[in-house]
Task: structure prediction
Amino acid sequence: MQASLTLRRARRYTRLSILDRYMLTELAGPFVFGVAAFTLIIAATQLLAIGRLVSNDHVPLWAAIEIFLWQLPGDMGLVFPMALLLGTLLSIQRLSGESEITAIKAGGISFTRMTIPLLAAGLVMSLVTFAVQEIVAPFAADQVAQIENIVLNRASAFNRDLTVSAPLPGGGKQITVATSYEQHTQALLHVTLIQYDRNDVATQIIFADRADFAADRWLLENASLYRFNPDGTLISEPRVAQQEVELGEKPTDIVKRLTQNDPENLSRAEIADIVHSNQLTQTELRKYVTTYQEKLAQPFACFVFVLIAIPYGMRAARSGGGTSVGFGLAVVIVFVYYIVLTVFSFVSQTFIGLAPLWAWMPNIIFTAIGLARLRRASAV
Result:
């Protein structure tokens, strides 16, 4: 009985009212239009790059189309907030321009209550954008890298020498260099390992024809070992059939770092793994930590854009104009927002200790502006 009562209460609280459904319906059409419009704008630049792949690099058309389609999920982190901003501007502009907001207020519904479904939609889309960014976009980026590796670099998963630096358990570091990587076997070819002590003095050099990954270890085949003793003597072991070593990373991690060295293409979990590997330079570390924090904050631009679009949509309605005014206003707001975002991104890389704060500052600033203008609009 108690459970049934609780269930009925939950349904009552989660059930959408007529007003909620009406406001969300008004938002849906312009939002879909915004997704289509901004996707086409962003895709136009990618189509030029795809065309160059086909014409200059002689990439098969099927591969170019696959690359284009797999690149689209990575753009949704920009498209969804901008589309929601445009959708909110246009819907509020229409409701205000046709005096429907005035009619709703006359029915005893406050302006704040009227905006709740729009703000809830912004919050939900923030979570959706975050999920796409963390799950779909990294997978899509992996698919793009695999297609490019197969089509453009048939002999190797990367078109330059591999170099990995990893700390050693007892201090010092190990530098691993390889000339190529076999994707189907996950093996490194023509490998050179150089180990240094804490004073950056070389203690061992290993040359191997091949390094295969198995059971969290690398097995070097046909290896030649040269150890340098503190007294200056050299111990050599040429042509060792197999030698077990640690390179610090798995094959997929190494290739991903080389083919997708931009942390924007990685999920927060993947960025955290790379940061904790202690294999980044100081400059790379600042970039990765900043991106790690921004990837949590930026999806919530959906909510912030809805909040700031509501009062600006009413202002646009009073100043006259139609879709073109809403579209232009959306472009201006997005432009200013991402300028502020870029500025704080540079600040974050300079003062890395406060990276979480700097990542959220654009949202905080625009939320404060939105709340102030929303309060003023609700008082009218």
